Amino acid sequence: MSEIIINNARKEYNGLAVIPDLSVSIPEGTLFTLLGPSGCGKTTLLRMIAGFNTIEGGDFYFNEDRINDKDPSKRNIGMVFQNYAIFPHLTVRENVEFGLKQRKLSKDEIKKNTDKYLNLMQIAEYQDRKPDQLSGGQQQRVALARALAINPDVLLMDEPLSNLDAKLRVDMRQAIREIQREVGITTVYVTHDQEEAMAISDKIAVMQAGIIQQVGKPKELYHRPSNEFVATFIGRTNIMDGNLIKVDGIAYLEFKDGFKLAFPLLNKEEEQPVRISIRPEEFIRVEEKGDFEAIIKDSIYLGLNTEYFLELNYGENVQMSEESTFYENLNSGDKVNLKVNTKKINVFTSDGGRNLLGVSE
Ligand SMILES: Nc1ncnc2c1ncn2[C@@H]1O[C@H](COP(=O)(O)OP(=O)(O)OP(=O)(O)O)[C@@H](O)[C@H]1O
């Protein structure tokens, strides 16, 4: 098992830097996810760790071992891809045995390890089938068993669930999580699906244009995103233009119409224009006068939750999410009073680049 340390990694394609200068350390035994929109460089970084890409700069370590000049086959890595990449002409058992035979282990060891991972991945009953007689989810279990059977130091997974249907994706991510915990292997997991990343990861690195925007536990990223990009990429949020102003030394958030909300958390900051982020579930409906008045414009019923589209009293449109109740219905045109838990608000610089509240790490 290894800690992975990457210092100042740089990757160019045709003279253009896809990853300009990236440093990150991935603690031993964690499931660490690279999350970001298509084209942000997740796969490129994963391939750099595997040694499949030439690199223009940087140092890569597994523990104290600098692996830059190590051949990919010598890095002791297990890999699982989107398109399974298991051998169609081999049975399930032969697929799982494959890497072990290459390593010239004894027959007993090969059998022991193969049985272990066939059982762990719950595919022992299909061991004599060929891959084309398996479902997508079962094939992905074979790929994972094959990757783990060689006892790799590091497991790399590139969008392993994106070929599966929605329900199977949820089942499989649970299976991957359980197996990863049980084996305790340092795992780098690539996805562009923020919900999947939240569900599966110990830690997430949010990437944009080859740059890591923030590294943190799922809760930390959701609660205190380091900038506006992270706030909008992880979950949903309402972003509003406003000002941070001071009255008698106390900070207030001033919204578009001059409406002010006391915000003592930022008493130490200078007055400045800001971007205010309030998640839909942080608008709480109250009977008495709240922080805002609003009119319901539209709603979507989603079972557990109902999403409301609201117009605040000063004309700004926002979304509110609340748990659905069977009896109560809000209709378009209804007036509501809303409160906001100020601890859950995030405030960014006017360019969205920095959270004035800092981040949890
Ligand atoms: N072999 C290549 N030659 C030139 N450009 C490349 C090559 N491979 C990737 N790129 C470019 O590098 C950037 C990062 O690609 P990468 O595949 O790492 O992104 P990604 O975040 O994994 O995206 P996706 O989620 O779509 O797989 C993209 O702009 C891509 O077009």
From TrEMBL:
Keyword terms, alphabetized: ATP-binding, Hydrolase, Nucleotide-binding, Translocase, Transport
GO CC annotations, alphabetized: ATP-binding cassette (ABC) transporter complex
Keyword Metal-binding: no
This enzyme's EC code(s): 3.6.3.-
Transport keyword on record: yes
Pfam entry (one): TOBE_2
Enzyme class, broadest EC rank: hydrolase
Taxonomic source organism: Jeotgalibaca dankookensis
Protein name (record): Trehalose import ATP-binding protein SugC
All copies of domain ABC transporter, residue ranges: 4-234
Gene Ontology MF, one: ATP hydrolysis activity
